[in-house]
Write a structure and sequence with these properties.
InterPro entries: Nitroreductase-like, Nitroreductase_HadB/RutE. This is Nitroreductase family protein. Keywords: Membrane, Transmembrane, Transmembrane helix. The protein is of the alpha+beta class. Helices cover 44% and strands 12% of the residues. It has helices spanning 3-46, 70-78, 120-139, 159-165, 204-211, 227-246, 248-256, 262-268, 281-293, 300-315, 331-350, 369-379; strands at 90-94, 101-106, 142-148, 169-175, 219-224, 320-326, 354-357, 385-393. A hairpin with a 6-residue loop joins strand 1 and strand 2 (101-106). The longest helix is centred in the first third of the chain and has 44 residues, at 3-46. The termini are far apart.
Length: 414
């Protein structure tokens, strides 16, 4: 055979082999990509990417308009208020004889006794509801006055029954053409931002504007911005987070109200979800699907490690802290502290700031006793009760809003 023909034949064979190898490689890559896409699609579908998020409906600025009763229009705003464990422990009764009056009750079926054994945080949450309702009332042209515990305070020996029988507040509305508020738009912004904040310090004007919310409240607001205080309170925040994540009753309580899919969140509309860690977009659905398919991804050890790391990163970048205290620790004072906390948080957002409660260190179960005593010894030396510890600063990212109950579901008759 001619050497040239032989060479050409060999070249053809080599090219044919290379072509086959390339085709095989392309087919292999295509198969891998297809498998990955199918896998991701499955995970995203399990995570609820195609499920409408009805649990976010109350965040719409027009949501309240479905109600004709002005009282319910205000409740539709107030349901956006922050609450311990996002349990939203509120029920309301509309006065049947006076269309300007409604009553707020604590919902004893939504308590978190592991982390809140005396229901103190539940009372703080009642105050937050009242503050949001008041801002909404002012925006809609009403004044809203509160009478706390109008039928008397709780029987602490029979707390759950008392909560069902005795209102936290009697709320009276009155048309007020002069009513106005600067904080209405802040109702619709996430109340908690756990991310690290910028290095910007609070300006004197910002501190003054935040301090102005204290008014004549029974609660006291202190804004702390020195390096020493920021370091000390940050360390206490980390320690409180660590202790809570190691306290089995607390982790079990949190696990019971964590919802990992869109459908579960639509049904629960309260409690925890991945949004609480700032997860948004496709990553939210991917993480929800992954947690559902492989629950070990979100076991207590992983959750504890993530919570501590998130807190440590946050406190390392904070402009300051707010402490909200009361002279004693009565139920009315707890509610007043909640009103002040919500007012502070709303005003912060109006000023372009963000906040994060770091109140684990204020919880009253036994294993938290040492840091609880430490923060009170340093910052409440005259026997006051610190009701809230809150980070504040300029955001580096915006946090997503979280689940809220339908306003109509809050209405009951005791």
């Amino acid at each position: 055979m001619c050497p040239r023909r032989t060479a050409n034949l060999m070249d053809a064979i080599v090219k044919s082999k290379k072509s086959r190898v390339r085709r095989i490689a392309l087919i292999t890559v295509a198969c891998v990509v297809a498998v990955v896409l199918v896998g991701m699609g499955t995970v995203l579908a399990v995570g609820g990417i195609f499920v409408p998020a009805t649990y976010l409906q109350p965040w719409s600025a027009t949501y309240y308009q479905q109600f004709t009763d002005p009282r319910m229009q205000l409740v539709a705003h107030a349901v956006l208020a922050p609450s311990g464990h996002n349990m939203q422990p509120w029920t309301v009764q509309l006065d049947a004889t006076d269309t300007d009056v409604l009553y707020l009750y604590a919902d004893s079926t939504r308590l978190t006794p592991a982390v809140d054994p005396f229901a103190r945080q539940t009372m703080v949450s009642q105050g937050a509801f009242l503050a949001y309702l008041q801002v909404a009332a002012e925006h809609l042209g009403y004044s809203a006055s509160f009478e706390l515990f109008p039928n008397g305070t709780y029987d602490e020996t029979n707390l759950e029954e008392s909560m069902s029988a005795l209102p936290v507040a009697r709320i009276t509305l009155a048309k007020d053409p002069s009513a106005a508020t600067d904080d209405y738009d802040s109702l619709f912004v996430s109340d908690t931002n756990r991310s690290p904040y910028t290095e910007a310090r609070l300006t004197a004007a910002q501190s003054d504007a935040l301090s102005a919310v204290s008014g004549s409240s029974a609660a006291t607001l202190s804004i702390l911005t020195t390096k020493q205080d920021i370091t000390a309170l940050g360390e206490l925040g980390i320690e409180g987070t660590r202790i809570e994540t190691e306290y089995l009753p607390a982790t079990e309580e949190s696990d019971a109200v964590f919802w990992g899919t869109e459908q579960a969140k639509n049904e629960a509309r309260s409690g925890f979800a991945v949004e609480g860690q700032g997860t948004t977009g496709l990553m939210k659905y991917f993480l929800q699907g992954l947690i559902t398919i492989v629950p070990a991804v979100n076991d207590d050890a992983a959750g504890a490690k993530n919570a501590i790391a998130l807190t440590a990163a946050g406190v390392a970048h904070s402009a300051g802290y707010a402490l909200i205290s009361t002279a004693a620790n009565s139920r009315a004072e707890q509610v007043e502290a909640g009103i002040m906390y919500a007012q502070f948080s709303l005003r912060a957002r109006t000023l372009g700031l963000v906040t994060q409660p770091l109140s684990q260190v204020l919880q009253e179960y036994p294993t938290m006793a040492v840091p609880y005593a430490a923060i009170h010894a340093k910052y409440a030396p005259e026997g006051q009760t610190i009701q809230m510890l809150v980070r504040v600063g300029m955001p580096t990212t915006q946090y997503p809003v979280t689940m809220r109950r339908d306003a109509a579901s809050l209405v009951y008759s005791p």
